[in-house]
Amino acid sequence: MPDDLAITSRIVIPGSDLEVSYSRAGGPGGQKVNKTESRVQLSFDFEDCEALTFGVKARVRASWGSRITRDGRMVLACDTHRERSRNLAEARARLAAMIRGCLEPPRPRRATKPSLAARRRRLEGKKQRGKVKQLRGKVGDSD
Question: Minimal CA–CA distance to 41: which of 8, 88, 109, 4?
Fold first, then answer.
């Protein structure tokens, strides 16, 4: 069972919610890749975790929904390094960063309207484009 994962000083994911499995990895390592299991798959019991609030879970689900399985587990895989321990450390760091990014709610969008000068510039541009297109018309007989 892995150690607890600290997201912030107040939020800590218990090790019982994390599950680690190892498999053979492609990538760097030469022939060693064929015989060592250095790829790390970190599975996090996301839905049943009591360390995260409902709002944080909703934001994580919206941002990282493709990584969440049907049974509510978030799955991360890492095989960038040759050593199992470095891959595990990177997978844990990625999970912490993903959750840390969803802790604060996004700022609400404040509706704004364009300034009077911007509206005038827009209309002038439209008039100019209209004139250019009008000049592209067929040439008529002037007889």
Answer: 88
For 4-37, the pLDDT digits (tens) are 888 888 888 888 888 888 888 766 666 666 677 8
| Whether the model pTM is above 0.90 | no
Q: How far is Cα 54 from Cα 52, in angstroms, rounded to an integer?
A: 7
- CATH number attached to the domain at 5-101: 3.30.160.20
3-state secondary structure of 18: strand
Q: How far is CA 132 from CA 79, 97, 106, in A?
A: 57, 52, 44
Taking the C-alpha atoms of 38, 42, 43 and 45 in order, what is their torsion angle to the nearest 10 degrees? Answer: 150
Q: Residue 37 and residue 24: Cα distance in Å, rounded?
A: 4
CA distance 28 to 89: 18
Please state, in angstroms and rounded to a whole number, the distance separating the CA atoms of residues 6 and 40.
Answer: 19
Q: How far apart are CA 1 and CA 143, in angstroms?
A: 94
